[in-house]
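check this:
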Amino acid sequence: MGQLRKDILRRHSMAAAGMLLFTVLYVVGYGIVYQADTPFLVYFAAFLYFSCHAGVAYVIWSGRTKEMSDPSLTLPVMALVILFMSVMILAGPALRGIILLGLLNIMPFGVFRLSGKGFLGVSLFAIACYALVIFLTHYRNSDELLPGLEALTGFALTTSLLVYAFIGREFAMLRAAYRDKNLELRRAMARIEELAVTDELTGLNNRRYLLKTLEKQRALAVRQDIPFVVAFIDIDFFKQVNDDYGHRIGDQVLAELAHLLRVSVREVDLAARYGGEEFVLLLSGLNMEAAEGVLERIRASVECQRFSEAELHQTISIGVAQYHPDEATDEVLGRADRMLYEAKHSGRNRVCLEKRSYAPSSDQESSS
């Protein structure tokens, strides 16, 4: 059970306990004032009220209200309380002072959920129910009530309930402001977390996120024997691009290459910017032979594409290593980096796999 439902059920339990206390006080007071047993109507109304309250608590406990705008069902519960208290006043008008105190005490229950309009609606409903009870009591026995006193009592009740409605409106505004600030804070935190693991220029995950993911992938490989391959990618002669065309064009090349890498791998894989013009691909569940085909397609795609507004012809060098059991992640990264170094010194624009190198065919080289 979630914490929210626990809090809601705790508030409902407190409200039910409070109503039980006022019911006991009413039964005792009725016997003292009227020297008679409490009318059956009060017991019947109490049975209905507490049964309904238990039903509401069960519905909340079952989770059926969690998608509602008011999962605590505050409005119907407060309406039940008002109706129950109205029956108690009707059965024992002399005890209405106790009941009115109880009525005022249940109003704070709405602070947790009711809007300003909801508070006003509950207050007007309570005033209308009290007025109806007083009218029925006067109609039944006109000598039982003093009109002047009832007018003052009704005015005091109306004023108190309207003050509660005003206070409830202020609480509703505070809740709304708190909710908006909380939402704004969550969005800011989500953005901070995103920025912490995302390279701003390319939109790929950064080196920090790559290293964390590598550790998770390593743990998965240890537990389930799932292979993975790490590929270091470097843009050939990228410094010359910055020197000849400026860093703005260089940034465009980086961003466009990052997009090509992102769309060239699966969702289970990871493309990350390692730093500068270096990128890393983490290919999950692949061995060297399968990774070779993927990386060669990426190399060929880069060779065919024209980058930035300057329509530059770029190539990449790729060094590849497969994870070996029981080795640390920095070891497999180091081996892939050494393969990248070998690809660079073997002529660039090639995929260099650990223990064997792959370069484009002579036809491909001549056509480029």
In short: Residues 271 and 281 are 5 Å apart (CA to CA). The chain has two domains: 3-192, 207-367. The first strand starts at residue 228 and ends at 235.
